[in-house]
Design brief:
Number of helices: 10
Number of strands: 8
Oligomer: single chain
Structural class: alpha/beta
Largest sheet: 5 strands, parallel
CATH superfamily: P-loop containing nucleotide triphosphate hydrolases
CATH architecture: 3-Layer(aba) Sandwich
Bound molecules: 2'-deoxycytidine-5'-monophosphate
CATH topology: Rossmann fold
Strand content: 15-25%
Helix content: 40-55%
Length: 236
């Protein structure tokens, strides 16, 4: 074993929180800084939603959904160190922010068969550690033993503004009223569904990003990563 691996143990970083509070941006920045894999688990739920839309399957048709999952392959591939979602071999990252996908994805994510289908894929991606995964149930269900769990919050105004900018950058126009009410609707469904609702794991560290710059968020998170690594090294 080289001295580098002794000083720098690979860990799993689980990042959870509501939509639009900056989880994916932080996860992306952290993974870049640490040379870790970043997985946006929300993109996987969006990919399933896209598949159901294309197949003309309603979110209420559980039997058809179960059937559709059998021939669905969700994966990620690295492009310039960035992990890109694929669905049955097709690159889909540019298709996941449309209003059609956004309007059904929370209902799709509340289906227990969909969650258990994605759970296996997500856990497999973390088997070698060195991963930052963001979502809603990453610290509570997918990686309950993650070495570092972050729970991100921000107020609804900041979240609406950020989501609007993100969509604008992708060339998608939606009014702030639509974005805000969609975020609130998704908050409600994501936090109140029966299967794996969004909750803060007991051992997660909370970061409120309302007034933090992107750089502040990264620095704060890196501080926690360093603490975890020194604890792990001290325990050796
Ligand atoms: O993070 P996002 O907005 O891309 O997530 C899309 C939807 O998927 C959202 O309604 C929450 C849901 N989701 C989930 O239930 N569990 C996850 N681990 C990730 C996302």
């Amino acid at each position: 074993m080289g001295s580098e691996s002794i000083a720098d143990p690979k860990i799993i970083i689980a990042i959870d929180g509501l939509s639009g509070c900056g989880k994916s941006t932080l996860a992306k920045d952290l993974s870049k800084q640490l040379s870790y894999l970043h997985i946006d688990s929300g993109a996987m739920y969006r990919s399933v939603a896209l598949h159901l839309i294309r197949e003309g399957i309603s979110v209420n048709d559980i039997e058809d959904i179960k059937q559709a999952l059998q021939s669905l392959e969700i994966s990620t591939k690295l492009h310039d160190q960035v992990s890109i979602p694929y669905m049955n071999g097709e690159r889909v990252d540019h298709l996941l922010q449309t209003s059609e996908v956004v309007s059904i994805v929370s209902e799709v994510a509340a289906i227990k068969e969909v969650r258990s289908f994605l759970k296996g894929i997500q856990q497999d991606l973390g088997k070698d550690k060195g991963i930052v995964m963001d979502g809603r149930d990453i610290g509570s269900v997918i990686f309950p033993d993650a070495e570092l769990k972050l729970y991100i919050t921000a107020d609804i105004g900041a979240r609406t503004d950020r989501r609007a900018k993100e969509l604008e950058a992708r060339g998608l126009e939606m009014t702030k009223e639509f974005i805000k009410s969609n975020l609130e609707k998704r908050d409600y469904i994501d936090s109140n569904r029966e299967v794996s609702p969004l909750i803060k794991a007991d051992d997660a560290i909370c970061i409120d990003t309302t007034k933090l710059t992107r750089e502040d968020q990264l620095n704060e998170a890196i501080g926690y990563v360093e603490e975890v690594k020194s604890r792990l090294n001290a325990a050796k």
